Amino acid sequence: MTHQLVNQLRFARSEFVRGLEGVTDDDGLVRFEALNSISWTIGHLANQENFYWNYLAQDLRLAPDLRKQVGTGAPASTPPLDEMWAAWREITASADAYLDRVTDDDLSLFFPFGSRTWGEDVGILLQRNTFHYWYHLGEGMAIRQMLGHTDLPQFVGNMAALTGAADED
Fold first, then answer.
1. Is residue 162 part of a domain?
2. pTM (2 decimals)?
């Protein structure tokens, strides 16, 4: 059974995708100072998942140049939208191999990092990753509004779909 915190991360991912559905390649590159572009944001979230769930959790090194391009503290950039979505899909699919196995006991584990351990446990990393999606989804929706996009999602989607329960509005 999938852990509830993993379900929440996956729901945040699905809302991120839903919120950015229909963004064109050109719109994905627009940058309103001091916000980053939507394409950057997609790569940035992929980078975080890559570090937590692929590198720390599984010792996998996917998309090694992504951190330089869209990592925290990297210079502002407008990478191609299709490349960032492709990286995001590859990275999240690989991350799911780890996330599918997370248990309550795993939440208090600290990943090895060099000669020490990473400073936050798996439970905190799951929450940080989930909240990061919501933060950047808000930015993405604001950018879409500034671009003049209409008919955007207005509220959090079907959370009940995570468990197979009926949607209650």
1. no
2. 0.92
Residue 158 falls within a domain, yes or no? Answer: no
CATH code for position 95: 1.20.120.450
The answer, yes or no, to whether the previous bond of 87 is cis (omega within 30 of 0) is: no
Q: Which ranges of the chain does DSSP label H, i.e. alpha helix?
A: 4-20, 25-29, 38-49, 57-58, 66-70, 81-99, 122-146
SS3 113: strand
Q: Is residue 159 part of a domain?
A: no
- Domain count for the chain, please give it: 1
| CB-side neighbour CA atoms (13 Å) of 111 | 19
By residue range, what is the domain housing residue 125?
4-150
Determine contact, residues 66/54, Cβ cutoff 8 Å.
no
The DSSP letter of residue 37 is P
In a domain, 164, yes or no: no
pLDDT by residue (tens digit) across 42-88?
Answer: 999 999 999 999 999 999 999 999 999 999 988 889 999 999 999 99
Are the C-beta atoms of 141 and 152 separated by less than 8 Å? yes
